[in-house]
Fold:
Amino acid sequence: MRLMIALFLLATATLQAQWTLEESHTTASLRGIDNVGGGIVWASGTNGTVLRSEDGGYLWQTCTTPPGAEKLDFRGVQAFDENTAIVMSSGTGDLSRLYKTTDGCQSWKLLFTNPDKDGFWDAIQFSKDRNFGVLLGDPVNNIFVIMLTINGGSKWERQTLKATADIHGEAVFAASNSSLLVPYSGDRFFCTGGSGGPRIISLGAGFTDTGITPRKHLPWETALSAERLKTSTSLPSNGCFALAESQKGSGLIIAVGGDYLKPNDRANTAWTNVFDKTAADAKSMYGFHPAQTPPHGYRSAVVYDAGLKAWITVGPNGTDVSFDDGKDWRALKPSKDDAVDADQGWNALSLPFVVGAKGRIGRLNDNSVIGLRGQ
Structure:
């Protein structure tokens, strides 16, 4: 009897829809999503679009458009509570901007405009302490743009990094606001792509947010520490698009990407930072290694679900899941309960939510992942 019940539950889980699609009331392309918790979720996208939910995504409010932002592309959103959030637009020069709301998106304040006429902002992340944030931009004069704030975004300080002579067309992709990783502890990372080839770049530990009083402002390294990812090609449209850490302080990081012009190409789509005890020398004990079974195409976002003990990655042609820390990826295929295009057009993740093209917002059904594990 127990076996029959287990098989029934497994079959039921397998048939569950992978994503429950929600009504966003917009056709904007959504690339920013931030689930604060407690039912508070924010999303952002093209045409100055910002959305907010206070009930776990069942109802989405269309926010007031920030002043002068009607044509801006909000690629990133960092939310702190139901009233407070910062959105980042991506574009050349002054089309890259930061706006902040403190009244539930009824009004917005322009915090910061890109001072570099040839600059382009790609990602913004805040640590557990909402006062400390990092802003990442494409290279200007062969120097990656890194700016820090220690007061919630009111003032940003450019970091003095050395010019990187071997960039050669290397840039950062602003696909899902996840090319930058600001872990709870340890180094800060970002990943790149383009004709220069993909790299994972470490900036050192920087500002400490460990709760020490008084807090110390530690200078970031002036030289970049980088690891070139193993790929079979280096094209302007190819590289690493997103980073994620498994759990607080774990040090296990997975990178995903690919070629956004070839969304069905599985080559160069996932790498895992592993510790190899059998390595011949200490230098090779750490490093990013390509997946043995890669995702089923270009992927723009990745996250770890601690409850499911699974990694989830999404892209324009679908969703993949890994139960072995990124070594092997399996497609999360639509079921009979899914919409015909339920696995199409995804851009960014903040579980259980996913956002994508034409205003698409989905909520992950855990049973679909549980069912895949059992197959």
